[in-house]
Amino acid sequence: MQKSIQFEAKTLSDSTLKAAANELRVNKKYVELKVIEEKKSILGLNKTFIVEAAVVFDPLKDGIDYLKTILTEMEIEAIIEARIEEEHQLIFLIEAKDNPILIGRNGKTLEALQTLVKNFINVYTEEPYMVLLDIGGYKSQRKKQLEILATKTAKDVAKTKIPARLEKMNSYERRVIHTKLSDWRDVTTESEGEEPNRYVVIKPKHR
Can you give the pTM of this predicted structure? Predict the structure, then answer.
């Protein structure tokens, strides 16, 4: 569903487009005006328009263009691909010679880029999207490492009956742990702490 508003205007000038974009709180580049009704005065000398201003936005295409703009500013050449994984979930994949720079220490730059893209897309969409960004396969490799860690730690907890606290993780990494162990009968997982220092605790299930 598109974001849209209707209003009365005397002209369809650029100033009308700007006013509509301000009302929608978006860049006018993504706004399209459409005349719904034309109203004339009694003598027919003056007329006004009932106008619909709608946001025209493609989360995949425009998301890629936004990333390209960021990388161009950083003077980094890259190949960018995107796909819809499931409803309202987008995945952007970047491959560049400068992957380490884009990933940053412990993936911090990657997470910052992901947040920028997510915030940009959700400004223009009626319903929020979950956005995942991966650079050079970093996240897919990180996911494998976290799943191995989750499995190993869960086995220890199930055996010793002693809870184990993992290192601080971002929301994506914590979700990987929770998902991996969601079907385990002997352990349960909980996120604890305050952002940005939240972490997962793997606990034995009491029977």
Answer: 0.76
